[in-house]
Amino acid sequence: MKKLVLAGLLLLQGCATAPTTQFYSLEAKYIPPVSLQKGETLKPLIGIAQISLPSALERKQIVTRDINGALHFAEQHQWAALLKQNMTEVLAKNLASQQANFWFKSYPWSLLGMVDYRLVIDVTQLDIVLGKTISLSVDWTFLNEKTHTILKHGSIELSQPLVDENYATAVMGLNTLLAQLSEKILMWVSI
Question: Which of 8, 89, 118, 132 is at 20 to 30 A from 173, Cα to Cα?
Answer without folding.
Answer: 118
